[in-house]
Amino acid sequence: MSIGKKSEAVKVVVRCRPLNKKEEATNQERIVEVDVRLGQVSVRNPKSSGSLLKTFTFDAVYDVGSKQNELYDYACKPLIDSVLHGFNGTIFAYGQTGTGKTYTMEGVPTDPERRGVIPNSFQHIFTHISRSQNQQYLVRVSYIEIYQEEIRDLLCKDNNKKLELKENPELGVYVKGLSSVVTKNIKEIEHVMNLGNQSRSVGFTKMNERSSRSHGIFVITIECSEMGTDGEDHIRVGKLNMVDLAGSERQSKTGAQGQRFKEAAKINLSLSALGNVISALVDGKSTHVPYRDSKLTRLLQDSLGGNSKTVMVATVGPASCHYDETLTTLRYANRAKNIRNKPKINEDPKDALLREFQEEIARLKVQLEERGMLAKERRRRRRNSMRMKRSISSGEVETPRDGEVGVVETVQEESVEDYWWKQQMAKTSANYKPDISRKLGIVDEKAKTVEELLKEQQSVEILIEKYKVSSFHTVFFLHADYTLNHS
Ligand SMILES: Nc1ncnc2c1ncn2[C@@H]1O[C@H](COP(=O)(O)OP(=O)(O)O)[C@@H](O)[C@H]1O
Ligand SMILES: [Mg+2]
């Protein structure tokens, strides 16, 4: 069930990075001006003699010296809060290669000053959860890459497997068989991100080219259970997509519609389709929005004109040599401002994992209570027999009192959740298929724990080492070895 809400526009912000060393060394002129107060970016054509500027206004603009926190606090924080309340949210980074998409989305995660949107969101989410009082949360993560219209699961040991998109009338579009990893704290979720990033770079010789031509989608699903005014528990589910898009430069170099489409088909169909979807949504004439033209637009259909709150961060460089690209990016971003979404809180969806966990936890609670009672009984007997012994040796006789409270064994002090996690870990190390790994019936998602992921990763690391030694043998080699190690 969803709770209806009115429509709202996509929030668009623009960030301009500093001149890089190469641009400085070649004395590139700065042609981009940013007026933070007015929210305006102006760009000057270096080829024209006059000082005519093209000016665009956005929800916010960020100058070369902008801090990661400034962008996060204004552009992203409210959206993450909404996701914590059960809305879907999407943050896109769009721009030419080398303009700061990855810097903005990821930055330097270990440096609080330079960490980007994704690690900042971890901090925000888990701080919120630790302060909550009457809610129960479950956070899980998936990480996808789309390259040449193929979807890869970056959190799966067989990360070269191509995944399929499926559609379900109730749940919309989803990736069949995608892994998700349940994370309990910042450390775990950071770890999962790092593993995904590593996996993105395994086995490909032209890594830079690949990463600039592929889309990375980091998905955090947050389930929150809380008692409603009706006295019943309700689960709200917010899904947060954080998207580091492929570099936009190729697309802008393709000219007319027909030609553009042909070239994009070879280079990056998804990015081209994204542009067409935005055009169709905002031109007011189109009756058809071509979401189905690419994997990216199908997967993120809700983020563009649907049930999601969406932020686009467009990144540009300041140097005169990139005038055309910069102008194209600003025009693209300017159009995206007019997209209207209809976000709503997702309440009690069918695929809530938390419901399953709650049921299991309730069962474990009973189990723990039984163990606690047994422990209590054992303790009472022990104390009584001690008393009897003491009494006998002193010649006095003392009868044990009924219902006497003994010291409870530590097992009772352990929270049910801790107990549950321990069980999962024990099962994992004993090579059992843990309950958490059950496929989520409807969406065919495979949830796993960080511990499971780590086990998989160890084998991946061995492979990376092997690969470094013998990068000659490319993907086939990796595949063959993987199967050997894991079968
Ligand atoms: N706002 C910024 N401030 C400082 N350095 C930046 C900024 N944006 C990008 N950079 C630097 O510019 C280079 C290219 O950025 P990157 O994020 O990799 O670009 P993209 O992902 O768009 O290809 C990196 O070395 C990055 O650290
Ligand atoms: Mg990048």
End-to-end Cα distance: 42 Å
What share of the residues lie within helices?
40-55%
Number of strands: 21
CATH class of the largest domain: Alpha Beta
Radius of gyration: 27 Å
For this structure, the quaternary state is single chain
At the fourth CATH level, what is the homologous superfamily of the largest domain? Kinesin motor domain
Arithmetic mean pLDDT = 79
**Total domains, how many?**
3
So what's the overall shape?
Answer: elongated
**Alpha-beta classification:** alpha+beta
Reported by name, the CATH topology of the largest domain is Kinesin
Strand content: 15-25%
CATH architecture of the largest domain: 3-Layer(aba) Sandwich
Keywords summarizing the entry:
21 strands; nucleotide-binding; disordered C terminus; binds magnesium ion; 23% strand; alpha+beta; Kinesin_motor_CS; 487 residues; single chain; Kinesin; 15 helices; three-stranded antiparallel sheet; ATP-binding; cytoplasm; twelve-stranded mixed sheet; binds adenosine-5'-diphosphate
Protein architecture, described:
The structure is a single chain. With 487 residues, the protein is of the alpha+beta class. The protein folds into three domains: 2-348, Kinesin motor domain (Kinesin); 352-399; 414-487. The protein is 41% helix and 23% strand. The chain has helices spanning 21-25, 68-84, 101-105, 117-131, 186-200, 207-213, 249-253, 257-267, 269-282, 295-299, 323-336, 353-394, 416-429, 450-469, 474-486, and strands at residues 2-3, 8-9, 11-16, 32-35, 40-44, 53-57, 60-62, 89-95, 135-147, 150-153, 162-163, 165-168, 172-175, 179-183, 215-227, 233-244, 309-316, 340-341, 345-346, 439-440, 445-449. Strands 3, 7, 8, 9, 10, 11, 14, 15, 16, 17, 20 and 21 form a twelve-stranded mixed sheet that branches. A three-stranded antiparallel sheet has the order 4-5-6, covered by helices on one side. Helix 2 packs across helix 4 (117-131), helix 8 (257-267) crosses helix 9 (269-282) and helix 14 crosses helix 15. Adenosine-5'-diphosphate (ADP) is lined by residues 17-18, 20, 95, 97-103, 212, 247, 315. Belongs to the TRAFAC class myosin-kinesin ATPase superfamily. Kinesin family. This is Kinesin-like protein. Residues 376-401 are annotated as: Disordered. Pfam families: Kinesin (PF00225).
